[in-house]
Amino acid sequence: MVREFAGQMRGPLYRTLHRSMCALLIGLGSLMAACSEERPTQSEKWTSPPLRLKPLPNEQAELVALWLGGEIEAPLPLYERVLSNLEHIGAIAPFPQPDSFAFMSPRIPSTLILDLYEGGRDSLISGASPIWDSLLAIFNPTIQWFYQEWGETATLTFPGRLNSEVLETVFNQVPEVEYAVASSSLWQVGKWRRSLYAAWIGRESVLYTFHSGTGPGPIGYETVDTVYCFLSTEDQMEYWGRWIPSREPLPEWAPDLCTSLRRFVGLRWCIEGLSLTPGANLRLPAELVE
């Protein structure tokens, strides 16, 4: 029986599987080669426009602009707009101390964790990596080296307030770095009780969402007592309203709220926090459930 099966495996089925596996291996090899070609060589250096590397006066406005801008530092025009928006909200907010709400950036700014290839630390310290040396000269980070069970790692802390997601892309260009990753801010537990989110709605409008909660965790892990939403356009600020999820129906602006929150806490947490169960009185746009 075994011989008969083995003979069948050497027939058309075997040849088909063999050809498919060869094609797969060739494809993976090509992909790995392409990926390796995208990494810079040791002789390259990284260049950048001049950076401030100093915090702006208003931390809250800078963090919001840093996330909205998507650049390595908060663009000054966007910072000025956000600062004006927050001052306007402070003047019209129907709740006390709006400036006490902490902006919840998806990533902790100005920090980065590096996992290095074997021997990477020695190579970087020895000056054998021009791109690494150019990055140190530009960003001047504080570096802590560690030896973990899985290999060599480093934690980088940067002056000023820098976008850690952009830093990921920059430091992943260093050949000795296996991967660079920014730390998530989702576990900064103490800030969740009074939290602020901001996200683009369309290309010009910014939705500011203030959450006042009683629990220690993010949406989906705490009871959100009250939600306040404000929409900033280029020339005006609009107060959308207040929503108390525990005893009020979903507001008409719930889809925009969910679009905003999903960029911070994920769609699952957004749905749980907004009680968007299958029986809820709201039809989500198709792009929200993909």
Could you give the topology of this structure?
Blueprint: H1 2-9, H2 12-38, H3 59-69, H4 76-92, E1 102-103, E2 111-116, H5 120-125, H6 130-139, E3 142-148, E4 151-157, H7 164-171, E5 177-181, E6 194-201, E7 205-213, E8 224-232, E9 237-243, H8 254-273
Parallel strand pairs: 1-6
Antiparallel strand pairs: 2-4, 2-5, 3-4, 6-7, 7-8, 8-9
Helix pairs in contact: 3-4
What portion of residues is helical? 25-40%
Biggest sheet strand order reads 1-6-7-8-9
Write down how many β-strands occur, each being a DSSP E stretch of 2 or more residues: 9
Please tell me how large the radius of gyration is.
Answer: 25 Å
Largest sheet: 5 strands, mixed
The amount of beta strand, in percent, is 15-25%
Helix/strand-derived class? alpha+beta
SSE sequence, one letter per element:
HHHHEEHHEEHEEEEEH
Oligomer: single chain
User: How many helix segments?
Assistant: 8
Q: Which blocks of ≥5 consecutive residues have pLDDT under 50?
A: 1-37, 216-222, 275-290
Quick one: overall form? elongated
Distance between the termini: 48 Å
Average of per-residue pLDDT values: 76
